[in-house]
Amino acid sequence: MDEYNHFVDWDKMDVTAQSQDTKDLTSAELQELKPLARKGYWAKNHSLRAKMYHKLISSIPCRTVTPDANVYRDISVTIVGKRNSLTLPLPEFVDNNLIPTYCLNSEGIGAVRKIIFCIANQFPDISYCPALPSFVALLLHYTKDEAECFEQVCRILACNDPSKRLIDQTYIAFESSCMTFGDLVNKYCKAAHKLIVAMSEDVLEVYSDWQRWLFGELPMVYIARIFDVFLVEGYKVLFRVALALLKFFRKGRAAQPVESQSIQQEIRAFVRDIAKSVPPEKLLEKAFAIRLFSRKEIQLLQMANEKVLKEKGITVKQKSLCFILLRSWKSLLSQGQIFQGLQPLECHMGWSSDPFIWDSQPEALMFPVCYFSSLLILCALHFRFYSHSDGHEPTLLLIKTTAKEVCGAYLSTDWSKRNHQKQLSFFGTGECFVFRLQPEVERYEWVIIKNPTLAAADSEPENHSSPATSTHLSRSALPDRSDQLSPFLSARHFNLPSTTASMFMAGSHECIIIGGGDGQALYLDADLNYGRTSHCDTFNNQPLCSESFQISVLEVWGFGD
């Protein structure tokens, strides 16, 4: 073990089970290694595991030009020089993920930052790779120096075998893997899914955490055992283990009283402390007992999820709007009137601690711009509101009533789409939601976000008559895409064909309606002077303010560069 002790704090490593009775496997075929990897054969000896990692990673088919150890020795001098490795900035594509220390000493932690810094220099095409710090930190335990670790990670990143998926390197790949995991949970962990739906306001956010469980929360001995099998069997193993974690969490959670802590934090804590309840052997046994889809079927599912994301234009992760609004507080006060009535603490509560906008919106939300204000522009739907709002998406509709109540809606779709139908018709997507800011903060998302099974409702287009107008409201005929979509992580982005649960936004020269089905979340008249609010099926909301109200100020905000 002496040749691998440079970066490892051996006081933290579990070396009690180290066995000397191990045979040389460097000449073994891949099929021979599969059962041995699952049984943890090379977990018995640190040097053997290091040799197996080198053998397996060296066999990965790569691009013709893949950075190697010699490249690292050169660039580490030119781009790092004498800088302190512990102060090197991490690239944006790791998404602010902390480096797992595992059993590394301080020199090892600095080496991880240095290696990642050099990888970013050699792989400019990587745009999103939150798992990379874990890969580098783990492999550094089993390589002789930084250069060898760099070369091994580069081979994993440069794999050019289309049938072998190893690590997500773009946001669309990451997001589609989260969607695929949502599909698998729905099929193989129904009890865990029901628990998460019952306890979480955002099921989607919980499932987006699945890679963090593996590459952020799991202790060293667990992720090393998983990595043993991963290098032999590929990406599918990660899905298996994440599903097994949820099954064990659900089993343990069933016997505990309901707590106020978020289910997302509870799962993270369970995974972090898994050694208290589930040994590595039992976790892997449960993972391989799941009769999962074949690798090809999972690959096709993931490709389908990527396809629908691309169709919607969801390719990069953007900064959260709550951050942008808080950062731009002075700008909001100077440009708009509604926010002047809110105290900074109230706005912080509305946009940050209970965020209305998800951290991963597909649109390029950059800087808030006030497109329309009723205090500055004549209030008339035909002449002013639409002319200032058309051509922009998403937009934020804010209303302040004469009773000083504040409410509104986040609207995903360009208002100009109202012109695509001859009659008053609903359009928009499941990203829409309505909210109240005063007198208290409340948000109401699309009802299918919390109850995805409603997406399977009658898919035939129907005409819906609004009690506020004699005009018939119709859903545009949409293709049935339910066979292509994750019911959880893609639900927001698409017009899933259901009935009153998908009536998002409608507009004409006579009125604006947000939310429909057994009432409307918001109804505004043609002069933008009076409005009504009530419960509606789409958002399952309570009235957002006084049920009949007079508008004091109405504003439309968008988000430009």
From TrEMBL:
Residues 457-481 are annotated as: Disordered. InterPro entries: Rab-GAP-TBC_dom, Rab-GAP_TBC_sf, TLDc_dom. Transmembrane segments: none annotated. Keywords: Cytoplasmic vesicle, Membrane, Synapse. Signal peptide: none annotated. It is found in: Cytoplasmic vesicle membrane; Endomembrane system; Synapse. Residues 464-474 have a biased composition (Polar residues). It comes from the Eukaryota. It is a peripheral membrane protein. Residues 343-560 form the TLDc domain. May act as a GTPase-activating protein for Rab family protein(s). Involved in neuronal projections development, probably through a negative modulation of ARF6 function. Involved in the regulation of synaptic vesicle trafficking. Interacts with ARF6. This is TBC1 domain family member 24. It comes from Calypte anna.
